[in-house]
Design a protein that fits this description.
The protein has 108 residues and is α/β, with parallel strands linked by helices. The chain has a single domain, classed as Udp-n-acetylmuramoylalanyl-d-glutamate--2,6- Diaminopimelate Ligase, Chain: A, domain 1 (3-Layer(aba) Sandwich). It has five helices and five strands; from the N terminus they run αββαβαβαβα. A five-stranded mixed beta sheet has the order 1-5-4-3-2, with helices on both faces. α2 packs parallel to α3.
């Protein structure tokens, strides 16, 4: 599945999508940035509620396919601008983290 396909599923929307054809392979759920850096695998979807600019750096370092912001959280425009500039896909889900993860487990 690609990031663009995920963004098109019910309940997901793309906030930034500079790499829509990026393949998705698995997922990682976490809000502690140092754990995400050390444990998320390349091409994972990273599910979080963190919205500060550091998520962009961590996503790039961990080489995740996209960040999914659960619970309907939305970052400031400066975070989205940085993500676009760095080539980091950010999607949003209104669902709680658990429901978002379960849906991804059934889909990916």
């Amino acid at each position: 599945m690609t990031v663009q396909t995920l963004a098109g599923l019910d309940g997901f929307c793309a906030l930034t999508c500079p790499q829509p054809d990026r393949e998705i392979c698995g997922a990682y759920v976490g809000d502690l940035l140092s754990w995400v850096m050390g444990r998320a695998e390349a091409d994972n979807v990273w599910i979080t509620i963190m919205t500060n600019v550091n998520i962009v750096a961590v996503a790039a370092l961990a080489d995740v396919s996209c960040i999914v912001l659960a619970e309907g959280v939305k970052p400031e425009q400066s975070v989205l601008d940085t993500a676009e500039a760095k080539g980091v896909n950010i999607l949003q889900s209104a669902r709680p983290i658990y429901e978002t993860a379960v849906l991804l487990a059934k889909t990916v």
